[in-house]
Amino acid sequence: MDRNPLARACRIVVLLAALAPLLVTLIVWMVWRYGGGSGEFPAPVALEGGQGSRVFDVNGQPIGQFQQFDQNIPVSEGDIPLRLKQAVVAAEDKSFYSHGGVDPRGLARAARADILAQEIIQGGSTITQQYVRNAYTGRERTSGRKLREVVLAGRLDRAMAKDEILFKYLSTLYLGEGSYGVGAASENYFRKPVSQLNLSEAALLAGLIPAPSRYEPRGDPGAAEDKRRIVLDKMLEEGYITSEEHAEASAQSIWTAPNVMPNRPATVIFPPQQAVPKYPYFFDYLRRYLVNEYGPEALFKGGLEIHTTLDPKRQAAAEKAVADSLSGTAPPLEMALTAVEPETGFVRAMVGGRDFFAAGGQANLALGGCSRPPEKLKEKVDVAATCWDPKSNAVVGGGTGRQAGSSWKPMVLAAALAKGIPETKVYPAPSSYRFKGCKGDQGCTIQNYEGSGGGSANLRAATARSINTVYAQLIGDVGVKETAEMAKKLGITSAWVATPEIQGPSYAIGTQEVAPLDMASAFGVFANQGRRAPATPVEWIRSPDGSSREDNRRRSPERVLDAGVASQVTDILKGVISGGTGTKADIGRPAAGKTGTAQEWRDAWFVGYTPQLSTAVWIGNRDRPTSLFGIKGVPRVTGGSIPAETWKAFMTEALRDVAPTDFTGAPAVFTPALPAPTAPRPRPSTPYSLPPTRDPSQPYSPDVTFGPFGPYGPPGGADEPGPTTTTPPAPGFPIP
């Protein structure tokens, strides 16, 4: 959010104009509430008879379908437990039993929240309005549809008992993964009739209503757990439950079967009972994308013909490369890989873990999260994340994302070159560097890998050798805000900054949490000469009547980076593979890339590309950031080790039948790297102090910060990261 008062005032004016339909809605509600109304109700949408959607690969071969879980589970009004009704009313519409179908106070609260946030974040819809939307008007985002919804809600409230409205609402609403109605959702998630739901389970289902894809317990148990607790808090506030009941239900945290701790209270989520798709992680991504774009009705009942970007040959190569790299290891160690075609943005392969159907496997680690700042710091945000915009095509899932480490440095490099900083600029390259203006002894110093350093280096050499201390100085010349803006333009949907309140100069070394999908897409911009085609799993979609619903085969990429700058970045990143930290990724053809290792060796990356394909590989602990020590004979896993080897194995096979070609366009400046520094490389006698850590027994919150370097503190070294330590550090706090 821009801190310029004039710009902010203009946005508020625009937002007030956007909120005009809500004000009109309020006026219409008053007319109908006090002026009466008559006429026949339209016929509600039929609950049965919808067609599932068929899915095809890039060759036109069928690979699966999307269909509703089961709408034929008989549910009567008496089957729905009181606790579930109370949970839904507390969470969605606490004035349900007192308003007349439309809540003017709710509309006013929503308008106020939207104005303060400078974006539309609340809709003000009651349960009655939501039911009308599901059964009568649809979800088209128009003022006319909203007005009709308000009119019908007022009439329905006068014609039907409250409990009957609530029952019809609970029988038809969408609750994720093809489940329509609480009966289907109860069987889907808990494998029990809805009448047998306990308080905790009822709160979980109620928490799914606003955004089933965001809060689904299999895909993101951390987000689902947070929402479950919020619903329980609201039930306590409304007097529906006692403090003792609240405490007992709150202790029943979400666990996925069969991975349940014995003799511990839990809300158990069972694996899906639907047919197993052939490519589950890609299907998960595709489902989230389509629900975001078209809504669940179109996907599960619309009879769509969906032709995807998935290439079975490359998908098989990805699955084999990941499986080979993980062989001999055990969960929760995981790996994710995503491959994107730079020219088109087509996602050709995706692997989000070792086994989608294993316990805890439904977290698609190829996707990432969408963290936000604490409420009190919202006004301090300099760059807002793309994924915060509900109209964006950002697809989230798989937890919070993972720290990028030094694979983030190309974002800083691109911003520097675009700003006119030449690659020939030389910086001191000491073993350690203290951030200017940082006070105290904790979190103020970063180091290079194993304390190496000395002498000086230009940007080309510093990138190839991944010298953290140079990049710590470079971002001071570029700017943290400018780096985030560049990352956002390139396609990192989770990139945001509030500096210096949350992010500081360590942003240059990869404290930003990212997804393999976004990283592969962003690096693809360099491969495509600065033009960006957003990542997509869809080539084209056809409706049952033969009309086109979406067609990405002829879309034109958008220029987001100067072609000369993109070529220069590529030329510098080629040196990472030819003679830098990524030599194990050499595939014998023109390629560029960057290694990355997060603080304390907790996450390791290799992201690289050829003109034809951009691929990101991540390895780390699924459940919590844990140092990657002693894995498959590698003492400390860095981006230049297992991830680079996995990338090479995949790319070698994926490009086997593709003729090698070099990148087009010469770099704006072509300067050879400086020779290796000749100054001594002292090893520090003691490592820098670790940042404070949260009590691991407490729930994780992405809003927790520890000073200007964010929740993890500054990376400890870096690409090849970390401070020099003699014993493995204690694991950090968990990532849901």
Structure write-up:
The chain has 736 residues and is an alpha+beta fold. It folds into two domains: 5-39 and 70-273, Penicillin binding protein transpeptidase fold (Orthogonal Bundle); 297-654, DD-peptidase/beta-lactamase superfamily (Beta-lactamase), CATH 3.40.710.10. It is built from 22 helices and 22 strands. A five-stranded mixed beta sheet has the order 2-1-5-15-16. The protein has a five-stranded antiparallel beta sheet with strand order 7-6-20-19-18. Strand 15 and strand 16 (548-551) form a beta hairpin. Helix 2 (20-35) runs parallel beside helix 6. The longest helix has 17 residues, at 143-159. The chain is globular, with a radius of gyration of 26 Å. The chain starts with a helix and ends in an 82-residue tail after the last helix. Residues 29-36, 117-122 and 666-736 have low confidence and may be disordered.
What's the CATH architecture name of the largest domain? 3-Layer(aba) Sandwich
- Biggest pleated sheet: 5 strands, mixed
Q: What Rg is obtained from the alpha carbons, in whole angstroms?
A: 26 Å
Tell me what portion of residues adopts beta-strand conformation. Answer: 5-15%
Helix and strand composition category:
alpha+beta
Within CATH, the superfamily of the largest domain carries the name DD-peptidase/beta-lactamase superfamily
| Whole-number tally of structural domains | 2
What's the number of extended β-strand segments? 22
Distance between the termini: 27 Å
Overall mean pLDDT stands at: 81
Top CATH class of the largest domain: Alpha Beta
Enumerate how many helices there are, as a single number.
22
Strand ordering within the main sheet:
2-1-5-15-16
Helix content: 25-40%
